[in-house]
Amino acid sequence: MAxxxxxxxxxxxxxxxxxxxxxxxxxxxxxxxxxxxxxxxxCRFDQTVEISVRLGVDPxxxxxxxxxxxxxxxxxxxxQRVLVFCxxxxxxxxxxxxADHVGGKELADKVKEGWLEFDVAIxxxxxxxxxxxxxRVLGPRGLMPSPRAGTVTTNVAEAVREYKAGKxxxxxxxxxxxxxxVGKISFTPEKLAENVEALLRYLNSIKPSTxxxxxxxxxxxxxxxxxxIRVAV
Length: 233
Description:
Elements lengths: L4 H11 L6 H10 L16 E8 L11 E5 L10 E4 L4 H8 L3 E3 L1 H8 L7 E4 L4 H4 L3 H4 L17 H10 L1 E5 L5 E8 L4 H17 L10 E8 L5 E2 L3
């Protein structure tokens, strides 16, 4: 697939940047659109910024699967739509905490029929009998509630507030890479850098004890419509 003139220009611009620290990478990323010549139209929307980290792990080994969740210091620049599977008193608790959709079997049936208008699904342990059969629908989309990610919990209010505040989840893919949203291109350089550094620190803190050799092998920072800038790790 041929590159657009815009992307080709930015890719050549990024080539000259090389590998740099987080603050410098953020500075270059934010400056890309402003570097375009007047004859090339810049991106007109607030791009999402993502970090990709190549890890020295073997995802085929259960004890080397890197996954987790973190509340980024400055959020991700959008309000996530939170769905909560619960019953009894937790319905009012979840609603009061700011959940967008709250319910039980009726919500599960809706999801089975193809409704997926939410970004995060949380469930109380007593609802897993209802939620479990949704694995085929939610699993491939990364929406299946999980105790490890903190989305199967008895503390519904805290979970809802965390995701509303900008909590993000990640899981290493088959190639040993972790991809995670860290904000919007409109964020100040300081806020973006703070989010990136927080995520990198957290990734380091959950390094599997069975992982040998270099753990963080490469890191790239990019926006929705931009080439990646390599970050020193």
